[in-house]
Write a structure and sequence with these properties.
Elements (H helix, E strand, L loop, with lengths): L2 H25 L2 H9 L3 H26 L7 H17 L4 H14 L3 H29 L4 H33 L7 H19 L2 H28 L5 H12 L14 H12 L4 H32 L4 H15 L19
């Protein structure tokens, strides 16, 4: 793409983000917000940030669990990649962080991007299971969402059945693909890429790894719940743990796709609406929601940007370059019999 076009698109994106931020700032009731911030407990806010980072560590543990059979990097590198993903999600719309960390990890390790994408798909699926599990727990605390909790249990059963069915059918699918003739057309290469993602998902998702990931995602969601509760308590906002749970579930309903950078505006609106439905003042709830954003996202974004400069300036390991070349050749050939590459060349080489 032309350098001038890229620069113009970047300027347009920055201008749109600045305009949206200015419009949001003008609509915030700053008087109750500043009053709430001035009386908040700094100790509890720091503790809330620590639990938020613990939740991110849980996410990194899930991703590392699925990257490990691919010969992925050390846990510290995966943790930095997870932090970069969270930073991109807080700065851009949609799921920019998911695409960014796939490209970043593939560049650093040389693992085919289709295999890295499969690990992210598995992580998001496990994350969804954790969300549905909390939704089922909320049905026990509130009488109204009981039907939603039962529906969540039903969805979990369907997901488990589909995963079992896909695993049983995986061998026959691979046989059909491996027998197909090679093609260099864009559609055929796209089809091979998607099949590579599905095959990698099937091979990576063993019972042991999924069990570890489920335990870590419960740690992730529980840490976020504690963080929400601590911020509310720091502001003397009497929403309680059950109310924080309901707010956490409500603001994460659209966690797969973010309509604004970091869900700014949408997050505050949903949190304040949930708190107001529980009989709490709307303005103070809006102030607590804004405080949540300031406590969780701003330090995380600053830390992620500082690590991101090192990440993108990092020269990939020579073995990573060799694996990238091999992966490009692999996608141009008939689909391999095993979707998981040899883990020996890169294991533990990137810090």
């Amino acid at each position: 793409m032309n350098t001038r076009v890229v620069r113009n698109l970047r300027l347009i994106m920055i201008a749109l983000l600045a305009a949206g931020l200015a419009a949001y700032v003008r609509r915030v009731p700053w008087t109750p917000v500043l009053a709430t911030l001035s009386h908040a407990s700094a100790t509890l806010l720091v503790l809330a940030l620590c639990f938020h980072w613990l939740a991110l560590t849980g996410k990194a543990g899930i991703w590392w669990t699925f990257l490990e059979p691919l010969g992925g990097p050390r846990f510290t590198t995966v943790a930095r990649g997870t932090l970069m993903g969270a930073t991109l999600n807080s700065l851009f719309v949609g799921s920019s962080g998911e695409a960014g960390r796939v490209l970043l990890m593939s560049r650093l390790t040389g693992i085919p991007s289709a295999s890295v994408l499969a690990t992210v798909v598995l992580e998001r699926a496990v994350d969804l299971c954790g969300f549905l599990s909390l939704l089922a727990c909320a049905a026990l605390l509130f009488p109204t969402p009981r039907a939603a909790g039962l529906g969540a249990c039903a969805v979990l059963s369907i997901v488990a059945a589909c995963a079992l069915a896909r695993r049983l059918r995986g061998g026959r699918t691979m046989e059909r693909v491996s027998g197909s003739s090679p093609s260099h057309s864009l559609a055929a290469r796209g089809r091979q890429y998607v099949l590579h993602v599905f095959a990698s998902t099937r091979d990576i998702a063993t019972t042991r790894r999924v069990s570890i990931a489920v335990a870590l995602t419960l740690l992730d969601w529980c840490s976020e719940l504690v963080s929400y509760s601590l911020v509310a308590r720091a502001a003397d906002f009497p929403i309680g743990v059950p109310g924080s749970l309901l707010a956490l579930l409500a603001v994460n309903v659209g966690f797969l796709v973010r309509v604004t950078p970091g869900n700014v505006g949408v997050f505050e609106l949903v949190y304040a609406t949930v708190a107001h439905s529980l009989g709490l003042p709307y303005d103070r709830a809006l102030a607590v929601a804004l405080m949540l954003h300031l406590v969780q996202d701003v330090p995380t974004a600053l830390l992620g940007l500082s690590f991101g400069v090192r990440f993108f300036a990092h020269e990939s390991h020579p073995a990573a370059h060799a694996r990238r070349v091999a992966s490009r050749t692999q996608l141009a050939m008939p689909f391999p019999s095993s979707a998981v590459p040899d883990p020996e060349p890169v294991r533990g080489t990137i810090s």
